[in-house]
Amino acid sequence: MRLQHLRDGRVIALVLIVGLVVVALLNAFSPTRSAYSARIATSGNTAATAPYFTCTAAVGADTANALFAYRLTEASGASTAVDWSGKGLNGTYQGTMAATTPSPNACPRDTGSSWLLNGSTNFVSTPRSYASPATYSEEVWFKTTVAGGMLIGFGSNQVTASGQHDRQVYLNTGGQLVFGTYSGTTQVVTSPKAYTDGTWHHVVATQSAGTGMRLYVDGSLVASNTAFTAAEPYTGYFRVGYDTVSGWPGQPANFAFTGSMRYAAVYSTVLSATQVANHAAAGR
């Protein structure tokens, strides 16, 4: 009996030793777990993905359909607004071009400065004319605290005040954005709010026979009218920063834009809501 008890004790001890070895091996090779947790508690920052990281990439994705695309990032005193659409249609700075590097800047991940317009002599005109563009999109980034002035539009004269003028985006006396065309009568769509808060804004205006007029601000549609499908038929030039807006609703006293601009382009297609949103997101 004593021998049997001794053997049983040895067996139990061996089992216990083997069990301890197995536990030790499992602890050595199993993944480490911890009780760490983290929480973000800020309301001003968000994390998200976007198709494009820069305005150059976003606009560049659509330059195949661009009539021209100007970064407006030339140095002070420059006379040429370089067209990087591939069409070679460089614009001409009227007045003395002044470059500025505001903080924050529109399209902050793109290199270069912005164009500071003095509200008097500054604008850009295209080097060639276009015959009655019927389907188009106009785009520009802008910043101002001054109500009034044309941002981008189409006129019958290249550098002087145009006798015929429409396809215009301008700020009215209340600081609202107005997109206007003319087809026998004045046709406008107007943003509900003002944009003279001194921060950067992205504006796109589109028109075609199939879509009518649409006005987007900061990536969102703010005004539209599907019945306004045609603009005035004439040959003219696209201009950025100045032309007459005489006779239009909310006509300001000063037709020249005062403030900063970056990335102006005109396309021969209607940019989709997704394209507009992508362009706006790339500049934030």
Question: How would you briefly describe this protein structure?
Answer:
This protein has 284 residues and is of the alpha+beta class.
Kindly state the mean pLDDT as a whole number? 88
What letter string, H or E per element, gives the SSE order?
Answer: HHEEEEEEEEEEEEEEEEEH
Find the count of extended strands (DSSP E, 2+ residues). 17
Give the helix tally.
Answer: 3
Percent range of helical residues = 10-25%
Descriptive overview:
The protein has 284 residues and is an alpha+beta fold. Helices cover 15% and strands 35% of the residues. Strands 2, 3, 6, 7, 9, 10, 11, 12 and 16 form a 9-stranded antiparallel sheet that branches. Strands 1, 4, 5, 8, 13, 14, 15 and 17 form an 8-stranded antiparallel sheet that branches.
Helix-strand blueprint:
Layout: H1 2-29, H2 55-60, E1 66-70, E2 80-81, E3 91-94, E4 98-100, E5 114-118, E6 123-125, E7 130-131, E8 136-143, E9 149-155, E10 165-171, E11 176-182, E12 186-194, E13 201-208, E14 212-217, E15 220-225, E16 235-240, E17 258-267, H3 273-282
Antiparallel strand pairs: 1-17, 2-3, 3-6, 4-5, 5-17, 6-16, 7-16, 8-13, 8-17, 9-10, 9-16, 10-11, 11-12, 13-14, 14-15
